Amino acid sequence: MITFNQLRIDDDLKKGIEKCGFNELTEVQEKVIPLALDHLDIMAQAPTGTGKTCAFGLPILENICNSNSIRNATNTIYDGAVQSLILAPTRELAIQITEDLRDFCFFKEGIRILTVYGGEAIDRQIHALKKKPQIIVATPGRLMDHMERKTIRINQIHTLVLDEADEMLNMGFKEDIDFILSHIECKHQTMLFSATFSKEIEKIGQTYLHHPKIIKIESQGLTVDTIEQKYMIVEEENKLEVCARLIDTRNASLVMIFCNTKKGVDEVTSGLMQRNFVVEGLHGDMKQMQRDRVMSRFKGGSIQVLVASDVAARGLDIDDVDLVINYDIPQDDEYYVHRIGRTGRAKKEGFAVTFVSKNEKNRLRSIEIYLKTKIEPMKIPSLDEVMQVRMKRYIQSAILQYEEHKNKKITKTIQNILYQKLIEENILIENITVGFILSELSLEQNLEIEDSIFSFTENTQKKKITRLFISVGTKDHLNKKQFIDLITKRTTLKSNEITQIEIHESFSFFDVPTNHLEECLYAFSRKVDGKKIIIEEAKQKPMKESRKKRGGKNHKKVK
Questions:
Q1: How far apart are CA 26 and CA 347, in angstroms?
Q2: N or C end of the chain: smaller count of CB under 10 Å?
Q3: Rounded to two decimals, what is the model's pTM?
Q4: If you average pLDDT over residues 542-549, what whole number do you get?
């Protein structure tokens, strides 16, 4: 494993990296940095959380000129012009990149970095541009505003980075990107980073990059090694209660909860506030000042729970998130990677739980196929488990309060009144204690839906059987063993769970546990060896047909 000390970069940058707590290079850093230092164009497919900012940031910082008239490695003279431009899809990601770069060059003087994005007064940014930053981190729309005002000129840059290019296209920035890239006429190095390589991404590479080096980092390295992934079967009406129980029993200090909609963010935030959690929401409708305040409080630990939408949370870099909850299962596999990547960062262990309804198992299976890993089920914490955790916390708090005030007059007064009441009214001390705990823990709401949660869970876990039809048979040269192999290779079913197999010439029937139904249907939704296979629930035979087949006197008409 290569360490940062082995890189051919400035010693001050190495000190900055060490201050950040980094030692060994991640896979994307190991592959990108040497090529970037040689000024080669790069297209890197890498998921979030793999260390991309460091991969492109260190070479940029290494190549930056530290005064206004120094020749750089490409022999160009700079006179206070912008030397490096980094494009990001959201202001949160742009701000995070800027913060990371400033951390990396903490010991390297003379490097000026500026973030420009929508939602902030453009006059303030114009004033900051007069200080002649060498690096600009920008969102496409606001950069175009500055280009049209001629307050930012990009005619002398030596490095261009497109970070999360796929997300920029998803957010409708294709025309903006074309406009910006077409206005860079000088010779420069381009580095493109994307979680996926779509046709649109490849077209950008063909149009604007010069013989790029292609690097691909598998998502498995992110999600399997450091993040424990689980799922729970939870219906919509029980999600809030299960979410609260999960936060309590995991005893998590920092929690991120993801919803698919802004309305969902607001509803979950409000619901958790009513349950006395220190929580705030984050979504695209909030003003930048509000979002900055929320993020500052969350990073500082004064907020325990952050509820966010995907767009608002894109690019957030927080190293100490203990628990990620997918309150809504994401509709895009890549969003799942971005979400759970908020935990398990910097080689720390993380924990992520996804809420799945009984009708969403196929979405879960799609994510498993994408990640090439199995997401295991997890039991919903019972009310007894929640009570134990809350009581322990409550008792510890009470003991601390007593120890802090035991020598004060008010404590003696409370003790005297308490003992007098116990004697006068013949009250047991444990009755008072239990009463105080019940009033403090507010368990009435939990008790109301306890039966609902677990009756649903038990019903979904019963061993029901479903019969399936599939359009393969003896004409496909399948015997019973080969048929079982066909199913088990594409699902998580074990061979002994596939029963009552009937193989005919062009179709077959078989039984599986009902909780594997959606998985089986999804497993054959794509072609197998180039052939489309039809699979569906078997239709029951009509009553008349079944009676005819039985035959016998009992089925003759009675005159």
A1: 10
A2: C
A3: 0.53
A4: 39
